[in-house]
Amino acid sequence: MKSWNILIVGVGGQGTLLASKILGAVASISGRDVKVSEVHGMAQRGGSVVTHVRIADKVHSPLIEPGSADIILSFEQMEAARYVQYARPGALIAVNRQKILPMPVVTGAAAYPGDVLQKLGQLPVTLVDLDAYALAEAAGNARTVNLVMLGAISKVMDIEQDVWQQAIARCVPPKTVAVNQKAFAAGRAIQQGE
How many CA atoms does the CB half-sphere of 39 hold within 13 Å? Predict the structure, then answer.
């Protein structure tokens, strides 16, 4: 199996930490080594949240160096721009189109950049942008954006779909397994253009 360096970025409250937990479970079920390093920042106040997930036969360090991420999973547009320097050439950058305005934008002290996706699309990467919030709502719960985003990267990784399903069932509350698996399937279908 291939090794994976996955950087998950978003804003506090978007489920980035659950996404990293599911990726850890995927690696564990697959018999792979995994290291996860979380940087919370001001997560409770809508601040930036970054998680490094490294999956391989043997992982020696939990941190991803700039220029070496295979996948950047961004739950919010500006967070993708903030951490794009971590992507290696040819990396997959999956971006939720959702915009969560930081306090300087809310107060009028700054403007939210309007061309984030256009600039990302000019880089030597594969860009997948999707409205994960709308897909999560259609799946039955707007809080499953994280599962939509995981679905969007799942076919790129060399991990069987049943392993993903087991990991989801292991990591989410039992009463939410069905809606989370439905959200995952929606992201998986969009990634392939199905």
Answer: 14
Instruction: Work out whether strand 33-39 and strand 48-56 pair parallel, antiparallel, or are unpaired.
Output: antiparallel
> Could you tell me the CATH number of the domain that includes residue 186?
3.40.920.10
Nearest to 95 by CA among 124, 68, 125: 125
Place of tokens 């792979």: 32
Residue 27 corresponds to which tokens in the numbers above? 């690696």
Tens-digit pLDDT profile for residues 26-84: 999 999 999 999 775 554 556 778 999 999 999 988 899 999 999 999 999 989 999 99
How far is residue 141 from each of residues 81, 94, 189, measured CA to CA in Å?
Answer: 27, 20, 17
Q: How many domains does the chain have?
A: 1
| Three-state SS at 83 | helix
